[in-house]
Amino acid sequence: MEPIKQIRSRTAVLPYTNIDTDQIIPARFLTTTSRAGLGASLFADWRYDEQGTPKADFPLNQSATQGCRVLVAGRNIGCGSSREHAPWALLDYGFQAVISTEIADIFRNNSLKNGLLPVVVDEATATWLLANPGVEVTIDLESGTLGLPDGKKVPFPLEGFARYCLMNGVDELGFLLSRDAAISTYEKAHA
């Protein structure tokens, strides 16, 4: 994982509620254990028609959303099954953060463990972001704030250990491995 201290990006907006993990990455794409290439299948049933042609009216198929690293979604993104492929697909597509008023717990945990930042904001902030696609925002992990174009900084919750891992580019196993010497010393002293 790459360390994340700050994300500055325009927003891509999906104004739908209850976006479940099967919509994020349909089950037929779960046969791989590799993250590479999953971005092409992100929201496949919404992005493409039956012949595999991109649907012009889907937000991620429009030129204005190309290069956006922050996805703003309606309430309750990531509900449904606990597939880790969902954050993998979002990351492979190029997103680094997802903003919503509600992010399903398992999806949030899978996101944090894989380097995708879930940002939960209040209803007024989410409503404004959903109504203003393409605005540039700044997500600062040190301060735990989402910076809006008008200069307003909106706080968002992020557990300390998750913040540490994201800012240092390590997952839970990487963190434990980095403490191997201290763990070994402790074990020898308490054998």
Task: Supply the key terms.
191 residues, alpha/beta, Aconitase, domain 4, seven-stranded mixed sheet, 8 helices
Q: Count the strands?
A: 7
Please state the average pLDDT score: 95
Largest sheet, order of strands side by side? 4-3-2-1-5-6-7
Weakly predicted, low-confidence segments:
none
Strand content: 15-25%
The main pleated sheet reads as: 7 strands, mixed
**SSE string:** EHHEHEHEHEEEHHH
Q: Rough shape? A: globular
Number of domains: 1
CATH topology: Aconitase, domain 4
Calculate the terminal CA-CA distance, rounded to whole Å. 34 Å
| Number of helices in the DSSP assignment | 8
The Rg value, from CA coordinates, equals 18 Å
The CATH architecture name reads Alpha-Beta Barrel
Helix content: 25-40%
Tell me what the structure shows:
The protein is α/β, with parallel strands linked by helices and 191 residues long. The chain has a single domain, classed as Alpha-Beta Barrel (Aconitase, domain 4). It contains eight helices and seven strands. It has a seven-stranded mixed β-sheet with strand order 4-3-2-1-5-6-7. Strand 3, helix 4 and strand 4 form a beta-alpha-beta unit. The radius of gyration is 18 Å and the shape is globular. The protein starts with 5 loop residues before the first strand and ends with a helix.
